[in-house]
């Protein structure tokens, strides 16, 4: 653990310019380590006390051909002296490690912004791969920016030194740390967290450790020594952050932490059965490290097997979950139907990505809402909850488990690639403040010790049936996918019974609305416009709504975390505004549901580019609606 | 296997329930159910610790007709539910009931993986070489040329050998029996139950409606002794009504030989169910009628690490090394900072 400190050199000559917030992006080839330095910069900024929001954006290919446009990997960080909710729209600074990175990212850099380029990689060959006929660094296309050309590869080699036993390739791999060091200097970031990280990560490989350290320091000192910039920038620690102890957390990590927490709070053990799929695999990686929490991870042979194993574990009485993305959810559909029929508590995490089919594996989208809602055969209601931002995964996954065991039902938890890979500060919760999850297993036939056979389809006041994992004497019973007779659970083809059971299952899920919070809004209680959003668009939509209010517009925002059933007061709430706008990264899936449920003339603002919303485009959409 | 006192009083009828059995009259499934009810009380496992998990198909109705815990799941996926259940509670005695369509067609992948992981479950595959529940289409074990509703000109698909598949996945226990040979069936099921790890038992089962007498060569009094060979560990492979025929290895191929006329018992292939490599068992699994008598009994039975026990061992090791999971410690790991 390290505290915020800065090992800056002599602060001669350079003046600091105070900024409220800064948005930077590291961009380079997939193999350039941009995600790594992005993560380090984020951590350093968080430790320093800024609010941070990140947006990693990388190709699906592990190593797309080097130097090509398709292979560009970027990491955007927004750090601020106040509360922020998005990684930001336009860049203040861009680091371009090669021509392809420059070409794909320059449009995002604001005029007058800082552009740092590694000139060593602007070779004829790399220029050609990026589609440049001439070197853009020699032309006028970059006149509008504050351009800093650095022969980073060469400088880095010199910094690591000739005495290193590392190969030149390995040395060159350190140059991302050179770039990081330079930006640490420029934005007055503490280097300790990264130096500590390097020690931890490469501690046993002394040469690698030393090379990375030297690169980082060389980058920092290069900024200090050469008069590349007229001044440095400083973003003071955020003041409006509630007091407490913080750390940085990513969405999938928060999800994994939330799962082991749910298991602890339920005094149960977690079984996580899954099949690797982008962007959900990191949940498995995190949980596999948490075996000392008695979390059992199971990498199944396919998506269906993962779902089956999760249901099997739930049947066995454990807190069970599976994780996947859209294509996997499609494969799991039949088994989820079985969990609905057998009324077993299991959580299905869907970290959404661009679709249809294989789609855009590493890009974000919210186009699986209707799949989660309807993507099964028969009348098959499944409750749906969705996280709003990375650390919200921690809270909402526990909610998903609570609903699952309280109502004996599968629950779908929706996240997306943007939430999963995004990082933000997380106020570390007090363990005592975390809600318990109550599990009630059947103890004897019908709980009354009678000699009568166990009736697996009796119901409590919430319409949940008893959870009777195998191993309980006297509760032996048979369940399955064939329609169940009410109370006995025997197979039944009786028409009246089928109708009754379909209604019962729906009623049970509808009744969950009584156990979830009412929908809140930020902004006016009634007015001209209500923005309704869900999932990972929370930051952009809430920021846009706040900006609109700053301009004097009557705009409120409701962000839904419960999508099935909806909060009880939602219909009433929608009626209190003259217009309703539903911004979504899909073709209007929540909008369709809202219109269907509440007969409200909701408008949509929809984008399907695999990219999150810009606040500015939402502001424009709001302006457009309010002008009409 | 844990034996609890007072269990010996359990009788086959204790494992019956009051649901009406709905297989067609004369179906081979009745015999398997009867033998299972006979075997279960002999295992010394209390009823509440026994679970039957099935997929979809005629055979998969099996759990409904027992008074243990039962889960009738979805087509082909029974092994996945069984694996999850065993991870959740390794102490349960779990049976997987499947058929040739359920286990080898739609669920082929899961069958391979439950076997290669060596999850401690007992898999019983009812092989009738036909789809019964969907009313008579050919299955992955149907013979070439078999005329069915979906193959009016005869099947052109090459059939799978269930046991070759199981052995290909390096099953630690592989056996075959027949619905009508009730004594052998009971013994085989009992051995499967006693094995630690995934046990795979193929049962030749007559579908008297859609594929009647598919196994008559192995069941008819007149011919069965010549068309089947009962395996015994450490014994030579001898068969025939007069026990005058044997199997000998010619290079790496088996051949049928007549005993006497210069061929002694010692020249024959001796069965070794404990051979570390599955090669011999595989060779036996390739022997099929009419070229060869089809082997019955236990092909392979070896010790191998049990999946769910290893899962638990890793958990225990982690707890031992890192201490019982502490949420506060986890949340506070890595860099933290305090806002006043």
UniProtKB/TrEMBL annotation, chain A:
Q: Which residues form the Pyruvate flavodoxin/ferredoxin oxidoreductase pyrimidine binding domain?
A: 267-478
Q: Does the keyword Transmembrane helix apply?
A: no
Q: One biological-process term from Gene Ontology?
A: response to oxidative stress
Per the record, a Pfam family?
POR_N
Q: Does the keyword Oxidoreductase apply?
A: yes
| Molecular function in Gene Ontology | oxidoreductase activity, acting on the aldehyde or oxo group of donors
Which stretches make up the Pyruvate/ketoisovalerate oxidoreductase catalytic domain? 31-221
**Which key words are in the record?**
Oxidoreductase
Against CDD domains, the record matches this protein to: TPP_PYR_PFOR_IOR-alpha_like
Q: Which InterPro entries match?
A: 2-oxoacid/accept_OxRdtase_asu (IPR022367), Pyruvate:ferred/Flavod_OxRd (IPR050722), Pyrv/ketoisovalerate_OxRed_cat (IPR019752), Pyrv_Fd/Flavodoxin_OxRdtase_N (IPR002880), Pyrv_flavodox_OxRed_cen (IPR002869), THDP-binding (IPR029061), Transketo_C/PFOR_II (IPR009014)
Q: Which top EC class is named for this enzyme in its record? A: oxidoreductase
> Record's Gene3D superfamilies?
3.40.50.920, 3.40.50.970, Pyruvate-ferredoxin oxidoreductase, PFOR, domain III
The EC designation for this entry is 1.2.-.-
Q: Which PANTHER family match?
A: 2-OXOGLUTARATE OXIDOREDUCTASE SUBUNIT KORA, PYRUVATE-FLAVODOXIN OXIDOREDUCTASE-RELATED
Which protein, by its recorded name, is this? 2-oxoglutarate oxidoreductase subunit KorA
TrEMBL record, chain B:
Q: Which organism is it from?
A: Kolteria novifilia
**UniProt keyword terms in alphabetical order:** Oxidoreductase
Transmembrane helix is among the record's keywords? no
Which superkingdom heads the taxonomic lineage of this protein's source? Bacteria
Q: What is this protein called?
A: 2-oxoglutarate oxidoreductase subunit KorB
Transmembrane region(s): none
Q: Which residues form the Thiamine pyrophosphate enzyme TPP-binding domain?
A: 56-203
User: Which InterPro entries does the record cross-reference, listed alphabetically?
Assistant: 2-oxoacid:Fd_oxidoreductase (IPR051457), THDP-binding (IPR029061), TPP_enzyme_TPP-bd (IPR011766)
**One GO MF term attached to the UniProt entry:** oxidoreductase activity, acting on the aldehyde or oxo group of donors, iron-sulfur protein as acceptor
- Keyword Translocase recorded: no
